[in-house]
Every structure is written in structure tokens, then in C-alpha cells.
Amino acid sequence: MIVELGHFALTLALAVALVQTVVPLIGAHYRWRGWMAVAEPAATAQLLLIGFAFAALTWAFVVSDFSLRLVVQNSHTLKPMLYKVSGVWGNHEGSLLLWVLILALFGACAAWFGGNLPATLKARVLAVQGSIGVAFLLFMLLTSNPFLRLEIPPMDGRDLNPLLQDPGLAFHPPFLYLGYVGLSMAFSFAVAALIEGRVDAAWGRWVRPWTLAAWVFLTIGIALGSWWAYYELGWGGFWFWDPVENASFMPWLIAAALLHSAIVVEKREALKAWTILLAIMAFGFSLIGTFIVRSGIITSVHAFANDPERGVFVLMIFALFTGGALMLFAARAGALEAKGIFATVSRESALVLNNVLLTVSCFVVFVGTIWPLLAELLWARKLSVGPPFFDMAFTPFAIALALLLPFGSMLPWKRGDAARTFRPLRGLAVLAAAAGVLVWAMQTGRSALGPVGLALGLWVILGAGSDLWLRTGREGLGSRLRRLARLPRADWGKAVAHAGLGLTIFAIAGHLAWQTEDIRVARVGDSFDVGGYTVTLQDVRRVEGPNYISTMADMRVQRGRQDFVLNPEKRIYPVAGMPTTEAGIDYGFWRDVYLVLGDPQEGGGFAVRSYIKPFASWLWAGCIIMALGGVVSLSDRRYRIAAGARRAHRAMAPAE
Amino acid sequence: MIRAAVAALALAVAALPAAAVQPDEMLADPALEARARAISENLRCLVCRNESIDESNAPLARDLRLLVRERILAGDTDEEVFAYIVHGDDTFAGFGEYVLLRPTADGTNLILWVAGPAMLAGGLALAGAYVRRRRAAADPTPPLDAAERARLAEILKD
Questions:
Q1: Which of A186, A448, A649, B112 has CB 3.0 to 4.6 Å from A279, enough for a Cys bridge?
Q2: CATH classification of the domain holding B22
Q3: Domain boundaries in chain A?
Q4: Total-model pTM
């Protein structure tokens, strides 16, 4: 019964979304207040209806209602509760439901907190948001309905893909979707502004928090996915340039470009048309990402949804929205004249360069991702584009960005003096370069990756620090510290996010350049040395988990006063008939010890792989710090005040 | 011939999991083994989704890893190993360029390799033109009228 109500709520949500699309749009055109006002309750109703549908599906998973096809395919009575719940979105239909739920959530937030938006803009933003809802609700109800019943329910389910039964992956999709779908807000604002025919500083201020929030979620989502790959796939890789990873990385790059260019719109009223275009592209890449994942057109490890019919539908949604928005852009962009005038050496130019690098690097990833498809379609060449290509093609952009970042972020607006901006940075540049050279000399014979990463990372981090410090004036230390604490949150957020990027760059390079690997056959009782650690295979035993059987090793790791036991496992999930590898990892500040138990060998003993991975934790820390910078920036006074500005104004009105 | 045998073997044991590089596959000479690993990272596992044979658990990947090491021991240079794996020889058909994770830079693939630098040059040219225009531009838009100014002040009030 609850399931039928959920299904009904979903259908009703489609009707509401249609109303939300059509009525406010007409209202905004004719300036009919009543019609425009429909958007707000409609957005709220949509959230409630989809929320109910989502709750109904979750309920079906929690009580293991095997009359539901989706539950049978993705759940099992023995599965731990966390994974029963995460199983809701661990599949195509459920993840789409999560997608539209988040879409409705963002729409409702815009309706509730958009009090200071002009009525017509608000109505149009919500209408565009509603139209995206229509498209995806139709997609769900027509091709991927989660509420389909089975005539004869089986006794038990087929279990969720064991690789997905993991805390890291349980929360990876919701964060990614918050990011993808968050970019729909930027898209809605862009299209609404094009319909309005004007973009001003206030628009830049409204669109930035949504982009920033989406970018923060994407950062966390990507980091979670990468961390999952690191500990779950069994060799400690953290990024594979897999099409599905690229699908999340491309919107991240564009969102990063967008939130920088929105600053230029807000502060200087320049780059307007470009910012609109970026907003359209950001959501366009989110849709492309959805298409790549959902269609399975470019096969990858994430192929839990290989269905061409669905792919065509998503492609149509993509063509409709991106194509429609681009046509609107072509018609209206000419009217968006820039106001701000700036010199060649200025913050504006630096941000333009930032945008060029981020956008082009995104397109490089895009071309590499679809190249196998193009080559096969156009020239019948079956080929692969893998990590070696992406490493080579993308790294120069990352290096250029890191080199320019500290300098560009400190250039003054409008007109700058390159020599003067660089003067306080000179010492830092020398320091970073010296550190790199020193390490290079110490590690004779190894690749330049480590030293270069160290120098670049240091340069970005120190630059972020001095960016803050140089804003505190020239008085005594006490006064400068007080001023430091009082700097706007936006400045803090900028410095923190940039430092996080520096940390990430260093961690990636250091991790890849300096890891130690050891592969061998070990019998129970054997000891061996890896990178200064003594590892002993003490025992291998059989352990039964709730829905799996495990071969678990006890491996003692010793070095000086460090002495601990790790338990790498090989698991078999009998219901899904799939083996998984669970590495034994000791997370440390300086290094991770990463042990993997392989297969038993013919002559006795087990294959054992041991890694010492320096600075591994710094990688995730860098991503978290980047996201944290976004959050700090989001809490800046001007966004908090802007939200309540109109109400305060109204309250004061009688006193005038 | 070998290819058919390899495929048959792959099918026969596809259900059995193995782990990436196995201890028994590794060459005794660390320098040769390092070369083998580097080559393996650039070869695709043909039955996996986007994994190199160095990472893959599939039996076919193991056969390829052994083949790479066989060629290295036979005295091939890295290029000769790649050429052998892709094109084969009189007795072995080769796996085709699909096996290369780094696509070759020839023929139509040149577009792929040139795309990045070309787009960067184009982007920089556009950006340069834009910056020059901004520098030269006089303020083109009429100032806001009183109502608009009041509205803007209200919005921007901190």
C-alpha cells in the first residue's frame, strides 16, 4: 500500500512540476503576480511529494518487500541495515529518485530563501528548475520506474553488488548528486537571466552561493569515491581516469571555473556572457555525466546500468536543455554588455586565465573520454584512451594553474603591477623551489614527480598564507593578528580552499613518487621487510560475516616502537557470487601501511602484496580542506545578509 | 593461434579470481621486472572495464603479463614488446591497438593529441582578444536610473 502511495506521489509530482514550469513562466511574461506566486508553493509541494516517494521506497528496502522488483534485484534479508538503506540509491531507478529528490530540494530552497530576488527572476528560476523536474520525472516514470511490482515475489533478494556494500560508497552518490544537481540551480539562474535579458552584479551574487555549494558537494563526493577506490579495489590506486570518474570530474572543473568567473560578474560586472555560458556548460556536463553513467555507452567499472534505451532518453534531455539554453544564449548574449574596464595585468585577467585553463583542461578530459567512441563511429578504429594519456594531457594544466595561482590571486582588481605583486612572493617562490631541489638531490635517481609536486604544493600553500597575511596592514603583530581574525570569511575561504588544492597536489605527487611496493609468496610464520617495516604473516583463518565468508590474515607490522596487527581479507558474497578484496590499512599521518592478501599458492603459502604509501591521508585531507574553504566562503556575511535583506527592509518601512 | 588458446583459457577460468601481479610471474632481475611493470601499466586488460593488465585480476591479463615478460627475456626493447603485443608475428595475430592505453599519435589519432594544445591556443587567443577589448572599451552602458540604483543599493547593502 505504501509503495502504491509512493508511486502515486511520484506521478503527482510530475503534474506539479508541469504546473511549476508553465504557470510562473506565463505569469512572469505578463507580470501577473498571482501566476508568478504559484512557483513557490509548487516547489514546496514537489519536494514533499518526491520526499514521500523516496521515503516509501526506503521503507520497502528496510522491510525487504520482495514484491518490489527493485528490492529483489538489489537487496537481501541478511544485508546490514546501512546497506539496505544505501541500496535504495545503489541502483539505476533508486539513484534517479534520489536525483529528482535533490532537484526538488534545491528548487524548494530557492523558493524559501530567494526572498530578495526580483519577482520575475524568481518565478523564472523556479520555472526552469521545474522543467528539469518534468524531464527527469518523465524519464523515471517511462523508462525506470522504481515502484514496479512482481507478480510472484521470491523468498529472498539477489543482494546488492558487494563492491557497493561499503560505508564510503554508501554516501558517495548522494554527495555527487548534490553537486550535479546543485549545478542545475546555476543553470536555472542562467536561463532565467537570459529570458529576463539582464545580468548584473546582483545576479552574480545570487548565483555564486549555489555554485559554491554544488562545487563543495562535488569535491566531497569525488574524494569519497576516490577514497573508496583506494581501500576497496585492492591495489591502492585512487584515480583511474575511468569514464565515470571523468563524468564527475568535468562538472567539477567547470564549476570551479564558474565560481571564479561569477566573482568577476559580482565585483566588476565583466565576463557576464561567459559566466552564463559556463553555468550552462556546468549543468550540461552534469547531464553528460548522467548520460555516460546511465547509458553504459562507454563501459567502465560502474556499469550497473547498461541500457541503451535509457541512454537515448538522457541524451534527449541533454540535447533539449543544453541545446535550448545555448540557442537562447546565442539570441540574447549580445545584449549582455560588460561594464568593467580592466588592464591586461589585473585580477580580472588572472581570473580569465584561470577560466581558460580550467575549461580547456575539462575539454581535454572530455575529448579523451569520448575519443574511443568517436574513433569507432567515424573510422571504425577500436582503441583505448587510458590513464597514461590523461596523465600526460592533463598534468600540464594542473601545473600551469598551480604556478599562476598565488600570483594571480593577489593581483589587484582593475589594474595591477606585476613586479609589485610578485615582490612579497619572491621569497616564497625561492623557498618552494629550494625545497624541491633539496628533495630531488636527496632522492637521487627517482622521477622528478615528487620534488616538482612538493615545490608546487608549497608554493600554493605559502601563497595562500601570504595572501591572508598581506591583507593585515603594516602595524605590530598583535594588530595584524586581530585584523587577520576579522578578515571577511570570503577571504579566509579563498585561502583555505587554495591551500587545500596545494596540499592535494603535493599529496598526489608524493604518494605516486615515493611509495614502496613488495609482492611475494609468504607462508604462515614468514617475516619480510618492506620500506623499513617488518611484516609477519601470523595466521590465515576463515571468518563468517553477516552475508559473506572471509579468508582473513593476521599480519603483524613492526618498526621501532610501532607494532600493530592488520587484517587483510578476501571475501566471497555467496548470494551475488562475487569475491572482493579488503585491504588491511593502517592510516598514519606520514604514511599508510597497506596490506593485501592474495590467493593461496600451489606450493603452499599466500600471495601477499605490501605497500608503504607516504602522504596518502594528505590527499583526502587536501580535498576536505578545499571543500572546507568553500563552506567558509559560503558563510561570508554578504550571502547571509543578502538572504534576509528584504525582510529587514520591510520591517523598517513604517519608521520612514 | 595463441590468441585463440588465450581466449579459450580465459573463458575456461574466467570465474576464478586471481590477484594483479603474482609473485610467480615476476622476473628475477629487478631492472627487467621494472620495465615489465611499466609496460604492463600501458596495456589494457581485454576482458576488464578500463583496467591495465598490471592492475587486473583476470586470467587473460596474467597471460599477457607473462607474454610481456617472455618478450623482455627474449631481448625485445619496450617498443618491440608493444609492437609484438599489438601486431603479433607470423604465428600470433596480435591484439590490435585496442590494447594500448596510450593511443598512438598517428593518423586520425593526431586529432586527439593535438586537441589539447590547439584548444589551449584558441582559448588563450580568445581571452587575449577579450582582455584587449576590455582595456580599450569606454563604459558602454547608460547609468542606472534612480529606481534601479535604489534597488541595487538595497540588494548590495552589507
A1: A186
A2: 1.10.8.640
A3: 1-165, 167-364, 517-615
A4: 0.87
